[in-house]
């Protein structure tokens, strides 16, 4: 990561525009403060990727916020070519000021150079391949696929400098780490899956009431009965009991059962978090533009 940051500090001097991919479900958590510092003074295009998985209303609010900061913004699904025209138009608008200065000085117009960056697993390589209409960058569903910088010629008018995904050394709060884990931007193998699922369920209960009941066919009666049962269990102390009830009931309804007919919380946690990641649960945003 340190090597990638040094390379970005060096290479940013070569470009006209900086393109940063954020995850539309968690724009604040996926916006690397180091990238903002390193690219300060450059024209900036924010791409809210995976917008097909995010809450439409919340994404609209994020677009307004970033535009108020002076950025161009495009919400997209990097797997689709449908938004690539909008991306190219936004880059053209950002580069127009420099082109005008070059014309005044009699400098021959050259291709616009853009640096593309973002944290690991935010969909950068998938976006590049859609933009270039060919497999120019390696893709994967785990962080850290891109290993080094590379120049890519998108067209006669546009060149792209790809960079490895960069995380910052320390998160400001625990929620950032949780959000990054939920969207797959950090290695989830090092995390407690059950605790992560409880955090997700707690957020959904507060911000998307009724969603879990519908997705996992749970009744309020079932939930209240389970909560009453927990009142006698010391193990439930210090945990969001309602979230725990959703996880246990979901485990039993979806066949996540261990020997003795006990709920397999680990399997249920994976099932629920995977439903969120893939969009099977619905369009959900983990952060609101406030």
Structure description:
With 290 residues, the chain is α/β, with parallel strands linked by helices. It folds into two domains: 2-162, P-loop containing nucleotide triphosphate hydrolases (Rossmann fold), CATH 3.40.50.300; 192-278, Orthogonal Bundle (Conserved Hypothetical Protein Ylqf, Chain: A, domain 2). It has helices spanning 2-11, 27-30, 33-38, 56-68, 84-104, 124-132, 174-182, 193-207, 211-215, 220-230, 241-253, 265-278; strands spanning 17-23, 43-49, 72-75, 112-117, 150-155, 158-162. It has a six-stranded mixed beta sheet, sandwiched between helices. The radius of gyration is 22 Å and the shape is elongated. Residues 137-147 have low confidence and may be disordered.
Structural features:
alpha/beta, Rossmann fold, Conserved Hypothetical Protein Ylqf, Chain: A, domain 2, 2 domains, six-stranded mixed sheet, 6 strands, about 10% strand
- Provide the helix percentage: 40-55%
Segments where pLDDT lies below 50 for 5+ residues?
137-147
Biggest β-sheet strands, sense, barrel:
6 strands, mixed
Compute the number of strand runs: 6
Topology pattern, helix = H, strand = E: HEHHEHEHEHEEHHHHHH
Rg over CA atoms: 22 Å
* Sequence of strands across the biggest β-sheet: 3-2-1-4-6-5
Number of helices: 12
Give the rounded overall mean pLDDT.
86
CATH class membership of the largest domain: Alpha Beta
What share of the residues does DSSP label as strand, in percent? Answer: 5-15%
- Secondary-structure-based class equals alpha/beta
Chain oligomer state: single chain
Approximate shape: elongated
| Name of the CATH superfamily of the largest domain | P-loop containing nucleotide triphosphate hydrolases
């Amino acid at each position: 990561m340190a090597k990638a940051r040094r390379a970005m500090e060096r290479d940013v001097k070569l470009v006209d525009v900086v393109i940063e991919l954020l995850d539309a479900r968690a724009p604040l958590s996926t916006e690397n403060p180091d990238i903002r510092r390193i690219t300060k003074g450059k024209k900036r295009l924010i791409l809210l990727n995976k917008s097909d998985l995010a809450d439409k209303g919340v994404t609209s609010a994020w677009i307004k916020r970033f535009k108020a900061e002076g950025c161009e913004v495009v919400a997209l699904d990097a797997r689709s070519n449908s938004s690539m025209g909008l991306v190219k138009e936004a880059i053209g608008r950002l580069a127009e000021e420099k082109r005008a200065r070059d014309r005044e000085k009699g400098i021959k117009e050259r291709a616009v150079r853009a640096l593309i960056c973002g944290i690991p697993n935010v969909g950068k390589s998938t976006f590049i391949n859609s933009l270039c209409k060919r497999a120019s960058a390696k893709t994967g569903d785990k962080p850290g696929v891109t290993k080094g910088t590379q120049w890519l010629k998108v067209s006669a008018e546009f060149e792209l400098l790809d960079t490895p995904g960069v995380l910052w050394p320390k998160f400001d709060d625990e929620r950032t780490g949780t959000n990054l884990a939920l969207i797959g931007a950090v290695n989830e193998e090092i995390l407690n899956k059950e605790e992560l699922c409880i955090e997700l369920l707690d957020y959904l209960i507060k911000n998307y009431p009724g969603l879990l009941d519908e997705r996992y066919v749970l009744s309020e009666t079932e939930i209240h009965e389970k909560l009453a049962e927990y009142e006698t269990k010391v193990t439930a102390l210090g945990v969001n009991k309602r979230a725990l009830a959703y996880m246990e009931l979901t485990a039993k309804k979806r066949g996540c059962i261990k020997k003795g007919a006990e709920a397999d919380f680990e399997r249920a946690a994976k099932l629920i978090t995977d439903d969120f990641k893939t969009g099977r649960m619905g369009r959900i945003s983990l952060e609101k533009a406030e």
